[in-house]
Amino acid sequence: MPREVCHTLTVRCFALVVLSVHVFGCATGGDDPVGRTRDTGSADTSPRDTDIEDTSAADAGGFDTDSPDTASPDTGPPDTASPDTGSPDTSSPDTPDTAPPPRLTCDAASTVTAPEPIAAWNFTRDASDVAPRAPNVPLSAEGAALVSGGEAVLTGGRLIASVAASDSLSLALRASSFTVEIFVRASDLVVEESFPPERMFTLSQTSTSRLLTIGAQESSLVVRLRSTLTDANGAACVGSDETLGAQMIVPGVFTASGGMKHVVFVFDATTGRPSVFINGEFRETSYCAGRATLNWGAGYRFLIGDELSGGRAFDGRVGRVAVYDRALSPSEIRCWSDAGESAPIEL
Predict the structure, then answer these.
(1) Of the residues 5, 276, 297, 306, which has the maximum number of CB atoms within 10 A of its CB?
(2) Following DSSP, what letter does each residue of 141-180 receive, concatenated?
(3) pLDDT tens, 19-67?
(4) What is the value of pTM for the model shown?
(5) Are 252 and 259 in contact (CB under 8 A)?
(6) Burial of 192 (0-12, 13-18, 19+ CB in 10 A)
(7) What is the C-alpha to C-alpha distance for residues 246 and 68, in angstroms, rounded to an integer?
(8) Is 189 in contact with 255 (CB distance < 8 Å)?
């Protein structure tokens, strides 16, 4: 074959090979001499067909991973409501409503609600037979004091409360108006007039320092109330030379043939004046002039039947004793007296 012909074929074969290589590179997306990617448009830098970690609640746990899925799509958040019961019912449908306090008939035309004491001593079992609303002031018997059958029989003995209980009682009384009632019968009326009153009810420290004393002197009822108008004994008015001018005395209360007496003492904080009722009737007494304020402190003992220091023993019988944290009205006192010591006390 002539040399020129072979050279021509060789050149053409080489060109054909180069052309094939170029065409194949374009078809497979090979490097472009000018840095362009054919038929792909703008470059996409995000990875294709690759799972992207999604922190949303829908993909929590990973779709293609083995991590456990802690979501509970079927249960949702716990429901604490009680749709079948509704709001809790605090009423007690099976428990009968508390009956209102009884009405006491005073006469054919009127009635009053039985007064409600803060503390009462019925003496049906023992000295601590107290049925209080507040405060709780049980008594202990000392000496010749017999308690049974609704009475405390005192022949030289006494009933006494603890210091804490006494303080709670005096605190409740000095806070505002108050009333003290006693059903009492005196046995020994042979008492010298100069002898100090026998103690039926007392809040005191010694025979000359007290808050309140209700006592008997011969046939008379004697009341001593300590206030801003009196001395520490509740016997003399401040600025007066009369040593017993503050005593409230009601003569002729106790007699040898007399039965139980209903003694009521009332202090009205609104008017600053005390008053005394015997068997439902108001009895005139004297007290220091002016408006009294209770300047009571702590540390005074509550006793029935004697003074804390002794020597003022009451000889007689004490029925119900009750204390109220308000001033009972005259109509309430009269009606309550007519009902007698056996009338039910609402507590």
Answers:
(1) 306
(2) EESSEEEETTEEEEES-EEE--HHHHHHHHHHHHTS-EEE
(3) 444 434 444 444 433 343 444 444 444 443 433 333 333 333 333 334 4
(4) 0.67
(5) no
(6) exposed
(7) 91
(8) yes
Amino acid at 32: D
Helices vs. strands in the chain: H and E counts, helices first = 3, 17
C-alpha 210/C-alpha 121 separation (Å) is 21
Nearest one of 57, 92, 88 to 71, comparing CA atoms: 57
Mind giving me the DSSP string for 250-289? Answer: ETT---TT---EEEEEEEETTTTEEEEEETTEEE-----S
Sort strands 209-217 and 198-206 into parallel, antiparallel or unpaired. Answer: antiparallel
Q: Any idea which residue has 């009972």 for tokens? A: 328
- Token code pair at residue 9: 């074929």
Q: DSSP letter at 57? A: G
Instruction: Tell whether the model's pLDDT for residue 4 goes beyond 70.
Output: no
Q: Which residue has the tokens 């004491």?
A: 117
